[in-house]
């Protein structure tokens, strides 16, 4: 029942694209909000996409305001709120998902217990009004084992810092990253970084695709190609080369968490994440938010009530049937051995879908039947 509402990703290692990834996530947004008053939509979509509800509510409000012709929607505190919510989402994924996906079987329970203990002490998870310096001190003590600013400077300056840091410490996260490296540090062919929100012209092109093609949200393409999005494709970091491996993408996730705990300044803090909105035509608006998993886009069309609505989430870019994850799975052997399972788990932790996934090994099962 839950899968019917949220969808599930089917992964088929060793099979050629587009069979290697099948995204069965239903497109429920427009059916839910069509004909509804605009004021009801942000709450409805925040509940529907509860895992990233704050980003969806913000994006919906901006898209609807833009469709109503409000070129400068007034949202006091939106930047700080987005910073805090994204920070918390990174903390939850690192502390809850990474131990299960990345730790070796012999140490999984111990690492998961240590991670959960750390999460319980995180000030940001206790409430949005937690002072940022308190969360930064927690991060330095519980995860980094050093000052956050120093960690980020070395990440930015030294290509080998992720490996050096993880190899040097005894904390649960450093141990986890070390254990994950053999399974996660293998090359993947990156798709183009998704920067469709870089200018007014590209935003209008994206809005046109969303308005004219109802299937675009399930199989999106940008400039006639697949794209990927994540904490490594931010507009404020566009000059940085894309990570070459899933392991380096995991590092980019931690680096963004560090950035978001630092005081506002160029390159980190509340101004790190891009968000905004643009009127497209009379009654049409587009909004975008850089959230934890990547770029979120909402398109709204108003005619008294909601006449059309599209939601394009990071999962549809990253788990496109012809995209980077599909290509990586294509090159993996369809086997049940622990090493192969660990590789797939690390790949999924790096790209972080917002729905459950299952690994299907039909080819392997057929071989066993005929043997």
Characterise the protein shown here.
Helix 3 runs antiparallel to helix 4, helix 5 runs antiparallel to helix 13 (246-261) and helix 9 (148-157) packs across helix 13 (246-261). The protein has a four-stranded antiparallel β-sheet with strand order 5-6-7-8, sandwiched between helices. Strands 2-1-9 form a three-stranded mixed β-sheet. The protein is globular and about 60 Å long. It starts with a helix and ends with a helix. It contains 17 helices and nine strands. Helices cover 49% and strands 13% of the residues. The longest helix has 25 residues, at 78-102. Strand 5 (275-281) and strand 6 form a beta hairpin. The protein has a single domain, classed as Orthogonal Bundle (Cytochrome-c3 Hydrogenase, chain B), CATH 1.10.645. It has helices spanning 2-6, 29-33, 41-48, 53-67, 78-102, 108-120, 123-126, 132-144, 148-157, 161-168, 172-184, 200-212, 246-261, 314-318, 324-330, 338-351, 362-370; strands at residues 8-11, 21-23, 192-193, 227-228, 275-281, 284-291, 294-303, 305-312, 356-359. By secondary structure, the chain is α/β, with parallel strands linked by helices.
